[in-house]
Amino acid sequence: MENVHLAVEDEDLYSGYNDFNSTFFTEVSFPHCNRASYLMNLLVQCWIFFPSGSTFDTLGQHRGPAPPLEGKNEDAPEEKIKIMEKKVNDLIEESCMAYSSGTSQLALEKAKEARRKEQAVVRQREQSGTADHINLDLTYSVLLNLANQYEHNEMYPEALNTYQVIVKNKMFNNPGRLKVNMGNIYFQQKNYPKAIKFYRMALDQISNAHKEMRIKIMQNIGVVFLRMGQYSDAITSFEHIMRESPNITTGYNLVLCNYATGDREGMKKAFQMLISVPLGIDDEDKYIPATDDSSTNMVIDAIKNDKLYQMERDKCVDMVKASQYVELANDLEINKAITYLRQKDFNQAVETLKTFEKKDSRVKSVAATNLSFIYFLEKDYDQADRYADLAMNANRYNPAALVNKGNTVFVKQDYEKAAEFFKEALKNDSSCTEGLYNLGLTYKRLNRLEDALDCFLKLNAILRNSDQVMCQIADLYEQLGDLQQAIEWLMQVISVTPTDPHILAKLGKLHNDEGEKSQALHYYSEVET
Question: Which residue windows are transmembrane per the record (predicted)?
Fold first, then answer.
């Protein structure tokens, strides 16, 4: 933001800063205490003297009843001041409550009365010689509330004067934040140069530790430049914010500024930054049923198919279909079907995916792949095989379609042919873990144990903490007769799932086969516990 300059104003940045109505300011002096003499006065020695012939009464039985507690003297100056300060606090609270209830005028009257009584408290302290005990927090609260109430009642000159009283007094902290309020008032008055001046002054006085506040001030500066028509300066502000702390509002304003300047490349870049802003929510997750909460599931069932929810999605899809980006509409429909799958609503998913049977090859292949998978889960293997063929015909390099086809052949126990499909899937996509896992299972059925072991060892290099893969490796080593290797792999499984009873029982059996009775007993006892 140091590179952003306001062209319309040549005056000094802080000029006019000290201009304010002196009638609103009361200077109070605070004498300094002599710390050494004060500490010496506290060093008072304490002596205990017993008269001659008196006995030491540890329980105080000869004293008689304790005297009554000394009551507070409300006529004492300090007590009077405390009562007055409490009344001031009560008036501040009443002012805030009045504003929250919508009665701004009453809130202002209460704030003014609190200011008058607070000034009376200051005079009382000065008269009683306790000016060094003036309650600065109370004074700050009174002035800040008064300035806020002036602002709420659109009495902007009075509000600015009151804010100026606060920031002028060096005893008060956080003057930078109050200058933001003053900048907001100038913005409301459409005095944009003054607004920018005070926002910049606030930035100067707020440390980098308060990053979020600085970002908001810079956003205000960008908006002021936007109102002034200085789009280049606004773009500089908004781009800085999008680099440091991107948000939707700033991204949208950046797109508008680039549009105003006719910068098409800038618009593209700004739009990419806008859509990259993380929303921090997943709208679809709230429609996924929670299996362990029946009452919540009932609410989800009631709202997930409400008319407004359906209309908003359909409206977006229709608008995209009518544009030149038809492929995006197809992707939205595919995403809709996948959402139904996550909700375990297979009928809706199938109905949505079947609409793609007559679409172009890419979308048809994706839809048919998902349909094949759904029918396979429902054990309708003929339909699963049909849609797997449809997906392969639409895109013969689709690894997911080849895996689905291999699965349908596998359940028909044609393992040699299934292995060919899985190998073809891996040829098209070497990172296809599903194809590699299923190929290993197929080699096991063909009793090609070494080839199966090779598949699962490769898969373990990709999926390091997969207990299923490690279990397959352990089982293959057991079938190959290498019990020690099988035990070592099962120990790795235990590090991932330490309480799995099947793994513990298997370890007990393997140790028993190796003649290690104590170890076998240990793992069998773990299963029982």
Answer: none
Cα dihedral value 223, 227, 232, 233, nearest 10:
-50
Alpha helices in 169-210 (DSSP H): 175-188, 192-205
> In angstroms, what CA-CA distances link 43 with 38, 48, 120?
9, 17, 36
Q: Does the CA dihedral 176-178-184-186 come out positive or negative?
A: negative
Residue 21: pLDDT band (50, 70, 90) is: very low
The CATH number of 464-529, from 1.25.40.10, 1.10.60.30, 3.40.50.460, 3.40.50.10070, is 1.25.40.10
Q: What is the distance between the alpha carbons of residues 370 and 387, in angstroms, rounded to a whole number?
A: 9
Number of other CB atoms surrounding residue 482 within 10 Å = 15
Residue 529: what pLDDT? 60
Return the axis-axis angle of helices 175-188 and 211-228, rounded to nearest 10°. 20
**Region 207-280: CATH code:** 1.25.40.10
Residue 10's SS3 state is coil
Q: Note the pLDDT of residue 256.
A: 94
The first and second tokens of residue 79, run together, are: 């007590």
Average pLDDT over residues 316-335: 75
Domains 1-30+75-204 and 464-529 share a fold: yes
